[in-house]
Amino acid sequence: MSSGEFGSMQFVVLSGPSGVGKSTIVDRLIRESPVRLVKSVSATTRAPRKNEVDGQDYYFLSLDEFTRRRLAGEFLECAEVHTSGKWYGTLKSEIHRAAALGGWALLEIDVQGARQIVDNFPQALTIFISTPSEADFERRLRDRGTESEEAIQKRLATARAELAEAGSYRFQVVNDDLAQTLSEITRILLEWKDKA
Ligand code: 5GP
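That is the input. Now the predicted structure with guanosine-5'-monophosphate docked in place:
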């Protein structure tokens, strides 16, 4: 895939371990960022959760439909996400939709998807959101008191693997305090816009 078709389009990729508060950050950025951002709605083969709306939270596709569209080259990136065995991907049409709305597409995707983007689109702005420290992350998990020891260990192992990828992102932001994280990301966006 070449960046040609998307050469003049800008997108922002956000990744980070689950439980790091990514969805809150995405929602706030969509509403408050001084650089207009449009949330890219991913496609997935997983079933909708309660309260999730097709076309809003995800495009929920059957595996057949996902595969057909993947083979037809409709995805900018896609990956089978380790933890669930389900497919997730960003449709190229989402980038066009954001551009038509006069904004940059904001992609909240996993590290495999981000790697594909970095390889193909040098203009992409990639940001990794991490936790203050593993000890802190573990304490937060335990304080919630909702998970078994086994589940906690699984989450820690996943987080460790994801954190190991952080270095391949252009920017890393530690989500210690939400307000501070948002202002740090805003600063990065404005700088990037100036350079574009
Ligand atoms: P969930 O099923 O909890 O909504 O998402 C699970 C994981 O899928 C998250 O780590 C999220 O970053 C990743 N994900 C969501 N959409 C995409 C996508 O379009 N592409 C890729 N590569 N990963 C995605």
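Residues 80 and 87 are 4 Å apart (CA to CA).
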